[in-house]
Amino acid sequence: MGARRFLPGALVLALAAVLGVASAVTPRTARAEVAAADPIDASMRTCLARSDTSSTAGQVQCMDNARIGWKAAADSAWQQLQTKLPPAQRKPWEKSQASWQASRDAEKALLSAVFATTRGSMYVLAEADMQLQPVRDRALALRSAVAKVSAGGDLPHRARACSADAQCEHAMFDMNRYYRRLQSKMPVRSRPVLTRAQRAWTAYLNASTPLVDERGRIDIIGARVATLKRLSETVGND
Fold first, then answer.
1. What are the DSSP calls for 51-87, one per residue?
2. Per-residue pLDDT tens for 5-44?
3. Residue 74: closest CA among 42, 116, 35, 111
């Protein structure tokens, strides 16, 4: 796959087509809106607009740099959170963080398997975006947790069982629907990769639910719905 060159105007349109998909289907939390002008995002936008990064490879590098920046931000926020958490909250947060990392590792294999079935520069950009966004979201979530703990905020009210929460049930229904759709469209040899990724994500959801309220749980599930929907609409495209 060659490194196709984009004219400046075409670059903006191509990026909007790729990056706009996630924002169109993923619930936007308040912390994401506040972080819209974060220096990491601003630096990425500047990088993407440069003429010397207008190739597909250049655009991917801009997004990879942003992902690395957000990973550093997440690591920094995690270190701050560890120093501020009351002892009773440390183990649940450690479990959540470890399960998030395990989920991300499994997700990388899933993205590779899905995008291996596609052809075209826009899918190279889409894969880079899908590698970036979850890291950004986790960094923002950890920053939000640090701010809340620093302000002496109370623990969130424990979420009801999903079966007692109509929004949760509906979100899980949608997630399972897109999971089955993606599974049916993936090559048979790659389906175990999807199974492992979904199990790792479920472990992350279960570990994180005690740390969030019902809206926070919906945000986690909603992001998964968006991911599976996007992948189910991507697999096999050329």
1. GGG-BHHHHHHHHHHHHHHHHHHHHHHHHHHHHHS-H
2. 333 343 444 454 444 434 433 444 434 444 457 999 999 9
3. 35
